[in-house]
Amino acid sequence: TLFTKAMTAAVEAESAIEILREECTSLPNGPSIIATGPLTSNLLSEAIQQILGDGGLSFFDAIAPIVHRDGVDENVVFAAGRFDEDSDYLNCPMSEQEYLAFVEALRDGEAHEGHDWDAVPYFEGCLPIEVMASRGVDTLRFGPMKPIGLTDPRTGERPWAVVQLRREDRAGQMWNLVGFQTRLQIGEQSRIFKSIPGLSDAEFLRWGSIHRNSYLNFPGCLSPFGSSRVRTNLVFAGQLTGVEGYTESAASGILAGINLGRSLSGEEPLIPPPTTMLGGLFRYLRNADPSHFQPMNSNWGLVDPLSQRIRSKRERRELLAQRANEDFFVWMERSGLRLDTTEARV
Asked: Is residue 12 classed exposed, middle or buried when 0-12, 13-18 and 19+ CB atoms within 10 A define those classes?
């Protein structure tokens, strides 16, 4: 792609960088940044596990979709935990007819072809939602969509089935569809998941997926800026840290370089404010629940909300982007960072 060509050209044009195109099978002893991708080799994965522990490295994504709170229909969806124990859940109630139609839609949905994950025995607990639907009409109703302990305030009765949304951030902007990891194609996810009562106008910040992906449990084993907790001069970056996407990976690598340099100079590491996309992403990485941690791409649910509620998605995003841009440059100036305007030619 043009982006990867531009990034490669920028690295190759830097005289202070020596490029060695060979496999890295162990962690260097000195100051280092480890920024491998989703298919990190077995030998390097083993070296990472030795320093971070067995729970520090995962090999598969089982990602459920996330929706923005503003698009959820409050006339349908209600906040409650099972048996009134936990209020950090929103519930989309279904009648028997709605549930049966939903199961049928899942069974008929077009999925991406999968191969390597099917052979992994421990993956049974993270089966795609459409595979669970194919196992029997009541499988979901007695699994992730069980209505036990919930009462629909509109009827005063227990729903036939429920789709639960779990809060993913402190501000309550991002909500995860619990148990809805899927291999469905994005168009199918949009069609089927927007048929869930209360989600017809929802903005999906992240779509579900299941694929081979080596990534670290950032909040469980790394420092707030991505270093090993036992070796502060060993910093991790890129998709290995649980960020998704080219720009996110590149930005985390740049920030890792800045902070490794500061650490070696005896200075405190820097992280942009959470009103910026990079700052919001790092806040998610360090504050997410380690027991539910999943990789994340950049989305507007990561940044601090505006002081006033804006219904127009386009206007809200424009205001968020304007504020993020302004705050980022103020942060750079206060941190003594300068913008390199040199353009790499592809």
From this structure: exposed
Is residue 285 within 8 Å of residue 220, measured between CB atoms?
no
Pair 220, 250 in one domain: yes
- Indicate whether this model's pTM tops 0.85: no
Q: Domain for residue 340, yes or no?
A: no
The reply to whether 329 and 218 lie within a common domain is: yes
Instruction: Quote the pLDDT of residue 219.
Output: 93
Please count the structural domains in the chain. Answer: 2
Question: Considering the domain boundaries, does residue 219 fall inside one?
Answer: yes
Residue percentage of the chain with pLDDT more than 70: 90
Which residue has 């404010």 as its token pair? Answer: 273
What are the pLDDT digits (tens) for 298-321? Answer: 999 999 999 988 888 889 999 999
pLDDT value for 346? 40
- The CATH number that applies at residue 299 is 3.50.50.60
Q: Is 117 a member of any domain?
A: yes
Residue 223 above 80 pLDDT? Answer: yes
Whose structure tokens read 């507007």? Answer: 300
Average pLDDT over residues 252-263: 95
Same-domain check for residues 55 and 148: no
Same domain as 182, residue 77: yes
Residues 216-240, mean pLDDT to the nearest whole number: 93
